[in-house]
């Protein structure tokens, strides 16, 4: 069985902890929001004109047509907007440490002893960047000749992913000249 990790988290700046998303009055006995004009939904978060920016308004029906992965009367619910699922292709034993970085959108870097991180633009879905073989017992890459660990951005680094191609020199003089430059 391939292990799956699901993380559910709040993203700073959302109104999930504010009563009626600060767009209505909460009846605390019933738990129902009385939304301010031009807002609707169970928590007052839906905007009639915008469909929560996750859909388009069908004015003839007075309904929102939600974009893929969004649901709800105002398209304000997602099956994964604050949920991250990571499916490991190979069983590596215990789960690696997870670090998150928020830059407008939550991105997750998964590392196992500093290796195997995921950086956009790399061959993150390919085992050892298709430039080596994976030692599944130890969870490390054994790089093919001419390849070594990258920084995830095309340079040499410590990711352990075989993503960096070492420079090829025709002779030792060319290597020395390149090191001086």
TrEMBL record:
<dbReference type="InterPro" id="IPR000742">
    <property type="entry name" value="EGF"/>
</dbReference>
<dbReference type="InterPro" id="IPR050969">
    <property type="entry name" value="Dev_Signal_Modulators"/>
</dbReference>
<keyword id="KW-1015">Disulfide bond</keyword>
<dbReference type="Pfam" id="PF07974">
    <property type="entry name" value="EGF_2"/>
</dbReference>
<dbReference type="InterPro" id="IPR013111">
    <property type="entry name" value="EGF_extracell"/>
</dbReference>
<keyword id="KW-0732">Signal</keyword>
<keyword id="KW-0245">EGF-like domain</keyword>
<feature type="domain" description="EGF-like">
    <location>
        <begin position="43"/>
        <end position="76"/>
    </location>
</feature>
<protein>
    <recommendedName>
        <fullName>EGF-like domain-containing protein</fullName>
    </recommendedName>
</protein>
<feature type="disulfide bond">
    <location>
        <begin position="66"/>
        <end position="75"/>
    </location>
</feature>
């Amino acid at each position: 069985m391939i292990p799956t990790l699901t993380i559910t988290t709040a993203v700073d700046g959302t109104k999930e902890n504010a009563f009626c998303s600060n767009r209505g009055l909460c009846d605390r006995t019933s738990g129902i929001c009385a939304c301010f004009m031009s807002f609707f939904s169970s928590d007052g978060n839906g905007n009639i004109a915008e469909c929560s920016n996750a859909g388009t308004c069908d004015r003839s029906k007075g309904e929102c047509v939600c974009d893929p992965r969004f649901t709800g009367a105002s398209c304000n619910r997602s099956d994964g907007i604050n949920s991250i699922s990571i499916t490991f292709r190979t069983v590596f034993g215990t789960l690696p440490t997870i670090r998150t970085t928020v830059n407008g959108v939550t991105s997750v870097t998964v590392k196992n002893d500093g290796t195997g991180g995921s950086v956009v633009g790399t061959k993150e879905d390919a085992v050892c960047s298709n430039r080596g073989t994976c030692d599944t017992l130890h969870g490390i890459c054994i790089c093919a000749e001419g390849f070594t660990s990258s920084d995830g951005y095309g340079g040499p680094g410590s990711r352990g992913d075989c993503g960096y191609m070492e420079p090829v020199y025709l002779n030792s003089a060319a290597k020395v000249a390149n090191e001086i430059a």
